Amino acid sequence: MILAVSVPALLIFVLVFFLFIKGVAKPDGPLYEEAYSSSPELVSVIGRIDRCVYESLYQSGIPERDIFFLDVEPRHEKGKTWEFTRLLVKCADETKALRVGKRILKELLTLGPGVTAREEPGHARDLRYRVLANGLYTHSIVLRFSGTLTDRGKGRPKVALIIDDLGYDPGLAEAFMGLDIPVSLSVLPSAPFTRRIVREAHKRGFELMLHLPMEPKNYPAVNPGPGTLFVSMDDQVLLRKLAEDLKQIPGAVGVNNHMGSLFTEDRDKMIVVLGALRKLNLFFVDSRTTPGSVAYDLARRMDVPTAKRTVFLDNDLDAPAMEFQVRRLLNMARHRGWAIGIGHPHKATVGALKNYLEKRDDEIEIVPVSELVG
Fold first, then answer.
1. pLDDT for 331-370, tens place per residue?
2. Taking 50 as the threshold, does the pLDDT of residue 199 lie above it?
3. Domain boundaries along the sequence of the chain
């Protein structure tokens, strides 16, 4: 009788022990800040709007070269953060623009009551539409039928790819290194496998960055992890913490922020950090986790080599959504001459880069992000 009771208890103990050991051996990585700020429902609705608009343009016969993603920028309202898209489309004439606009509005209606769109009147050279998802303004679409729009880039456009949040899964880090793409690896300080990933990156010749944890607005509910810079720290503590974090990533050539929606809006604290990076000849890439970030503009004024993220590749891990983000990245590179995409350690992200970017040598030049800072 005692044995009959003990065996199930022993099995439960073994199962719990196995799960515990598995979790210790391969801890889950931290979620990036946007995952906390945007509801899955909002991300999904925005993705469906993106694909609906793009399909409408395709069905209307608009060539890829006449579609301009002007910007994708973070916005924050009502406790939600999302990527706001400015899209400009070149149309042959006003009649064509009217047809395209009518098709877009018609197709958006099929997405349900959560999506609304309306024309903004009073513009002589174009038609303008405002699209809302769950009451939030998510897309500005301009159909231009006068004036000239041309690609800005000369020669092949350059694209840089940063992989953030590395340090928790060495297998995924090595999968990114196994791609035939010169990705820049941004590694968290003091993560369980930071040293191992840094060693392997050095061995394979990949560009390394410090993924610098900075305080988000909703701390401590959202915790950036060890090595975080807080706005409450005095300047000397900030500099000491930054030095400790950089020491964890020997050979790092630059820095980008991990989270940091609060910290990157603080001008005084960013001056301290950017001043230290300037002395060390390191660049700073603004991940743009908040629309109020002052980091990029400050870096330019302080002569710190800098750039800012263009597109997050994997806020939505659905394959069509990721393909759309890659196409958006390439579109922006084609018209600007350059673009910077940020991805995270997911198997789906490895697959997307392999499927959509690994063999694009004839269309674009993929470069380390250090080539795009200035």
1. 999 999 999 999 999 999 999 999 999 877 678 999 999 9
2. yes
3. 37-144, 158-316+328-371
The residue that leads in pLDDT, 1 or 257, is 257
* Contact by Cβ (8 Å): 69, 85: yes
- Residues 6+ positions from 136 with CB-CB distance below 8 Å: 42, 75, 77, 78, 80, 82
CATH superfamily of 37-144: Beta Polymerase, domain 2 (3.30.460.10)
pLDDT tens digits, 91-122:
999 999 999 999 999 999 999 999 999 999 87
Give 364's contacts (C-beta < 8 A, 6+ positions apart): 156, 157, 158, 159, 330, 333, 357
Instruction: Give residue-wise pLDDT tens across range 143-160.
Output: 999 765 555 556 899 999
Packed helices 319-336 and 347-356: angle between N→C axes, nearest 10 degrees: 50
Q: What does 237-273 look like in DSSP terms, one character per residue?
A: HHHHHHHHHHHTSTT--EEEEEE-TTGGG-HHHHHHH
Say if CB 366 and CB 298 are below 8 A apart. Answer: no
Tell which CATH architecture fits domain 158-316+328-371: Alpha-Beta Barrel (3.20)
Burial call 254-292: b when 16+ CB within 10 Å, e when fewer: bbbbbbbbbbbbbeebbbbbbebbbeeebbbbbbbbbee
Q: In the prediction, which pLDDT does 333 show?
A: 95
Contacts by 241-247, CB closer than 8 A, 24 or more apart = 242/212, 242/273, 242/276, 243/276, 244/189, 245/189, 245/190, 245/210, 245/212, 245/213, 246/189, 246/210, 246/280, 246/282
Measure the CA–CA gap between 24 and 29, rounded to whole angstroms.
12
The radius of gyration of the chain's CA atoms, rounded to the nearest angstrom, is 23
Q: Token pair 């900075």 is at which residue?
A: 214
Over residues 122-142, the pLDDT tens digits come to 778 899 999 999 999 999 999
